[in-house]
Specification:
101 residues; alpha+beta; Glutaredoxin; 3 helices
Length: 101
């Protein structure tokens, strides 16, 4: 989580999707209490189908081109998220593999 807080202006997005577990109000309260540094929203209606959410919460890492690079159902843990984001940062700096098209 420590690294997540330093990534505000980096070229990707980490997004959480919660379906059927929280209302927007309770999700906001949880995010504030836990000091979650990523965007998260409540999926209702067709969101679960649109995002292909099979469980909740689901986390997505989206690269600068809008490509979903990572998806986890349930919390993968800080180390897994940090490693995925570090890979994207190296890639963005030209030190890693290229972004898929």
């Amino acid at each position: 989580m420590e690294k997540l807080e330093k990534l505000e202006k980096k070229p990707f997005a980490l997004i959480g999707v919660n379906v059927g577990r929280h209302t927007p109000k309770t999700l906001k309260e949880v995010m504030e209490k836990e000091k979650l540094p990523w965007r998260s929203f409540v999926g209702q209606g067709s969101t679960g189908g649109t995002w292909h959410v099979s469980g909740t919460p689901a986390f997505y890492v989206i690269d600068p081109r809008g490509v979903i690079r990572h998806k986890w159902v349930g919390s993968p843990g800080d180390k897994v998220i940090d490693a995925a984001l570090e890979d994207l940062l190296r890639e963005a700096e030209g030190k890693g593999t290229k972004t898929p098209r």
